[in-house]
Structure formats: structure tokens, C-alpha cells
Amino acid sequence: MKINPNPKILISRGDVLGDVVLTTALIKPLKKAFPNCQIYFLVQKDYKPLLEPIPDVDGVIEDPIPYTMTYKHWPLLIKLAKSIRTQKFDIFLGCWEIPRYAVLSKLANIKVRIGHEFCFWNKMLYSHVEAHDYLNYFCHQVQYNAELLRPLGINDGD
Questions:
Q1: For helices 74-86 and 100-107, what crossing angle results, to 10°?
Q2: Please, which residues have CB within 8 angstroms of residue 36's CB and are 6 or more apart in sequence?
């Protein structure tokens, strides 16, 4: 896989506070591998103030879709995808197992879309998926997220 040496990266997992905090662990290894990358986060409105002051975060995009998405929220998803498409991201990291972010990244036309292998739709819509043993209760969510960096050549030890 050919990756832009200075990629524009969008990280998603902005639905609950603890998970937003856990995704920030991806910043350091991404900056180490791609020193000139741009890192953006896709989060719920309430969590934007948490991420905006972080020096290595170049931008925060508000996710207007509620935690429990229904069919009535599809127009919001499509509108968000169009908005994201205009920003021309190189890499999407879907740190939540549900398929809505796989759909969003595909609709946004992001070439490198990495996410959890959790379900059929993720396997079909992400360009790269990482399988996890969700029954391994000794593996923390930070580790699951770090494993999403493997397709980028970033190993767990990084």
C-alpha cells in the first residue's frame, strides 16, 4: 500500500468520553511514523473542547449523529460524508467496531480506511481490517486501537 508521506488522518471514536481519551494514544505513534502528518478527530460536540487544545491535533470535526443511529439519521451521515470528502483525508482510522464509520469513510471517499473486523459490513467497506479476540479480557481498548496502526507499518511497540 502506498501512503502519502505527509498524510492527513481522521480518527473516529467520539461517542463517549472514555473512548475519546483512549484514542488520543494513537497521536504519538502516528507522529513518530509520519512527523509531518495532520491529525483530525471526529467526535461528538461535547468532546471538541477536550481535543482542540492538544498541540498535535490539527482539527476536530463534529459528529452530529447520536450514539444510537437510526434510519432517520442517514441524511446526517450523508451530509457529514460530503463535508469530510471536501477535506481530502488520506487515512481514516475507525476506532469503534460498529459499521457506521466504515460506511462514512467509504462515502467520504477516503482511500485508506482502517477499522475493526468486527462485522460483515466492516470487512466489506474498510480497505483494511484488523481482527481482535474480543474475549481476551486482558487486552485493553488502547491495544485494540494500536493494532489498527499495523497496516500503516506502525507496530504495537511503537
A1: 50
A2: 5, 6
Round to whole Å and give the CA distance between 108 and 122: 15
* Collapsed DSSP state (helix, strand, coil) of residue 24: helix
C-alpha distance from residue 117 to each of 29, 79, 90, 121, 133 (Å): 22, 25, 20, 9, 10
Dist CA 140 CA 109 (whole Å): 30
Distance, in Å, from the CA atom of 13 to the CA atom of 50, rounded to the nearest integer, reads: 13
pLDDT digits over 56-108, tens only?
999 999 999 988 888 999 999 999 999 999 999 999 999 988 899 999 999 99
Quote the pTM value.
Answer: 0.92
β strands within 30-90, DSSP E: 38-43, 59-62
Quote the CA–CA distance of 126 and 81 in Å, as a whole number: 15
